[in-house]
Design brief:
The chain has 232 residues and is α/β, with parallel strands linked by helices. It has eight helices and ten strands. The strands form two sheets. The chain has a seven-stranded parallel β-sheet with strand order 1-10-9-6-2-3-5, covered by helices on one side. A three-stranded antiparallel β-sheet has the order 4-8-7, with no helix packed on it.
């Protein structure tokens, strides 16, 4: 696992350049992407690069890693991704797969039909979760519904105007989906991510810290700012 400490803006730029390199190497690359604050600037940068014709998603495929099972209109993780990334690049809508109660049933099959995930882009959340894989999630888990823990719901409370409004269930690719990707990029910023990042890099790779399973793949790059790296 390679750790790169950069300011958030520079980290987003570095990650965007890696996506650009991948799509030049493999125009039909399959990307798994996660919504949330830590990944948002990266997607905005990729949209800018597409507008400037520095990068093309014309032949690429995208799968959303996780989303809420049921959420208020405009509050799904896919919503800002659609507005700020998908609708701003030259990707074929038929090559974008959002995770919901219907698609989750066939997600793993469709990923396999596409040849597997080339690059998974994610962040690390409360209790060192990745996607909505909460503590206790087993390594071999594939796409599934997941009851969200109190720490996760507390982390999301501001977005929903209070923890009581946060959805109770998420849908997510499993640990096996994410670790099977040929490459992984993790972005984490802010002091509140210091402990999750520490657990991801140094914790035992068992189900207590789901992100620690990312110690297993061989091509993982973690981009963190100084506050998120403060416990390393």
């Amino acid at each position: 696992m390679k750790t790169v400490i950069l300011p958030k803006h520079d980290a987003a730029e570095a990650a965007a350049q890696r996506v650009k390199e991948l799509l030049k190497e493999k125009p039909k690359a399959v990307l798994a992407i996660e919504g949330g604050r830590d990944t948002r600037e990266l997607y905005q940068r990729l949209a800018d690069m597409s507008a400037e014709e520095e990068i093309s998603f014309a032949d690429a495929s995208v799968f959303l890693i996780s989303d809420y099972e049921i959420a208020p209109r405009g509050k799904y993780l896919k919503d800002p991704i659609i507005d700020e990334f998908i609708d701003c690049v030259d990707i074929d809508d038929n090559n974008v797969c959002y995770i919901n109660s219907l698609t989750a049933r066939i997600y793993d099959e469709v990923i396999e039909e596409k040849g597997g995930i080339d690059l998974a882009i994610m962040s690390v959340g409360a209790d060192s979760r990745i996607g909505f894989n909460e503590p206790g999630t087993q390594f071999m888990t594939l796409t599934h519904a997941q009851k969200l823990t109190d720490p996760t719901r507390a982390e999301l409370a501001e977005e929903f105007g209070g923890i009581e409004n946060v959805p109770e269930t998420g849908l997510t690719m499993g640990i096996k989906n994410l670790t099977d990707a040929r490459e992984q990029i993790v972005l984490a910023f802010g002091e509140e991510k210091a402990e999750p990042v520490f657990n991801m890099i140094y914790g035992r790779n068992d189900s207590r810290w789901p992100a620690a399973f990312l110690q297993i793949p061989k091509n993982v790059t973690v981009y963190v700012d100084a506050p998120a790296a403060s416990k390393l």
